[in-house]
Amino acid sequence: MKRIVYREWLLQPQRYWGLLAILAAVIAVGGLSALYMEHHGHWVTGMTNSVVWGVPHVFAVFLIISASGALNVASIGTVFDKKVYKPLGRLSGLLAVALLIGGLLVLVLDLGRPDRLLVAMTTYNFSSIFAWNIFLYSGFAAIVIGYLWTMAERKGNALQKPVGTFAFLWRLALTTGTGSIFGFLVGREAYDTAILAPLFVVMSFAYGLAIYMLVLFYAFDADGRPIGPAMLKRLKNLLALFIAAILYFTLIYHLTKLYGAKNDDIETFFLISGGLYTGLFWVGWILIGGLLPLGIIYHPELSQRRDWIAAACGMVIVGGLAAMYVIIVGSQAYPQEMFPGYSVIQFGAPGDIGGQVAPYSPSFPELLLGFGGVGIALLITAIGVRVLQFLPESLADRDVDPHASARSTA
Amino acid sequence: MNHENESMNQGRRDFLGAAAGVSAAAVAPGVFLHTPVANAAARTDPVTDLHRWGLLVDTSKCADGCTACVDACDSENGLNLQSKPHGQDELKWENQRAVWIRKVKLQDNLTGHVTNLPLMCQHCEHPPCVDVCPTGASFKRADGIVMVDRHTCIGCRYCMMACPYKARSFIHEQVDHKLTRAPRGKGCVESCNLCAHRLDSGDISTACAEACSAEGHQALIFGDLKDPMGPLRQALAKTPSRQIRQDLGLNTGVRYAGI
């Protein structure tokens, strides 16, 4: 294998500054939205005492699990010794940190008291998975930065495998922790199941890789760097495997719930009668996020075309946001069942929701805050690849895996 | 000269006497007003686990259409001081304003029998809200009362996700009016605290149970779950009761008869 040469992103200055300006505008609007919600209070959002976590959490959780998933590409190279993936490692680490920061900012800015962040960082209750996650998230950022150093600095190369392995294990813990935020909640019918943790892990694999591939395609196209067909094939096949894993774990999640009579109602809600949530599940989570991209990836012609593969990646991301919306918002909108065998015919004052599906319509500031988080992640990535050598000069097959290209020509 | 001195001394005595009187008048209210509070000063003593406060709700006595407990809680804890933000939808506001206790009406799916009951924080022995709170703001006192420390609540709402009883409320709006005994602030979570301010000043009662008795229903009995001779334990001994979501094994401090 040739020595891999990394180069800063050589986008023309006008395009580059234009991109930064757009991202800065998205971030500014997100920041203003957060200020607006903070100034007035959460009554200006769609959130209520029934749906307490809304669209900001959808974006935040999506970005956080994608962060750990984006690191997978580096792990495959370092931990599992797949040499072809080695040139992809630096961007993988950068994207992981960037997505995590974007997600965490959204999470923090949606707090009722974001000004008390210092309290959250100094006062811990270690029975809380949230408290564990504060360590898992900050630890992840620190470890990945160390991991990047071992990849970039020759003196650190020897440490790459142990640090990479540690980062890989840490990221598994992180996503398990994020899934467990929901999985350990015993009081809601949709949660209270350990399978949410591995489901979140496989979701992170797919969403992180889809984002990674889109960023890679865009960055490489923009300054004319080649990506070989063998490399493309590897990445898309890996994505297909992760999508299939999501579908499998989703199936098991619902089968488990369907088996117990006590969960019939929540399953009917998700799968048949839940209106928007049912639509998002079937059309968003399963069709757009699962079956369609699988169809593209295994289609004999479409799978050869980079734009179609990029479309498949985009679909995985859209499907992922739909899945997060169903898991986070749909599960809260569904009424908590406190009185089995009874129908709730009155619950407090009219409008105070209990025993029926709670209404929730996201407000614009919530959406804009979520987009702001995405903007932060992309801005960090755009600056990172511009000023430091994160991107390999070429991912042409002959440069990354001469044996593969020899095989393909044979 | 002597006479002059005497009159001067007399004047000084008068002045000192008057000054002492004014000082006494100024200081005395403080002394007298503060002394009883200091004597009743359970507030300075740590709460102990000698008591575990709880409630028994006898749903057969809970009257349809009566909201005495809810109204009493609202005025006791300043919940009636909340005002709908200008321009907010009425029904959405009902789902955003803080509610510590609500009347719930249930119908048995098989028999059609209708049951009324008040639902509030169940003051679990193993409260999920306390387990999940990242900062420990959601906590359980030694006497079993589950409440929120508003100084360390960061408004993450994880406790609201975890509570099986929808007992908690998030303060969605700017708070303009509140009571000293029930501080409240935008961006924090709160819920029923069994009128802890009453208990801490030696008054063994809650506003809801008191109001229910005043209405003559006696559907709510407040007391000490650890006192076998107390009214709560006596009532629990006589009536079969259960916990809502008993399957979760939370050992709630609030028990229900008739469901």
TrEMBL record, chain A:
Gene Ontology CC, one term: plasma membrane
Cell membrane in keyword set: yes
Topological relation to the membrane, as annotated: Multi-pass membrane protein
Entry protein name: Molybdopterin oxidoreductase
UniProt entry tagged with the keyword Lipid biosynthesis: no
Keywords in alphabetical order: Cell membrane, Membrane, Transmembrane, Transmembrane helix
Family statement drawn from the similarity comment of this UniProt entry: Belongs to the NrfD family.
InterPro entries: Electron_transfer_protein, NrfD-like
Record Pfam families: NrfD (PF03916)
Transmembrane segments: 16-37, 57-79, 91-109, 129-148, 168-187, 193-217, 238-256, 276-296, 308-328, 367-388
Compartment(s) of residence: Cell membrane
Automatic annotation (TrEMBL), chain B:
Keyword Cell cycle tagged: no
CDD domains per the UniProt record, alphabetical: PsrB (cd10551)
Pfam family, one: Fer4_11
UniProt GO MF annotations: 4 iron, 4 sulfur cluster binding; metal ion binding
Entry keyword Signal: yes
Alphabetically ordered keywords of this record: 4Fe-4S, Iron, Iron-sulfur, Metal-binding, Signal
Domain 4Fe-4S ferredoxin-type: 53-84, 144-173
PANTHER family: PROTEIN NRFC, PROTEIN NRFC HOMOLOG
Protein name: 4Fe-4S ferredoxin
Protein species of origin: Lamprobacter modestohalophilus
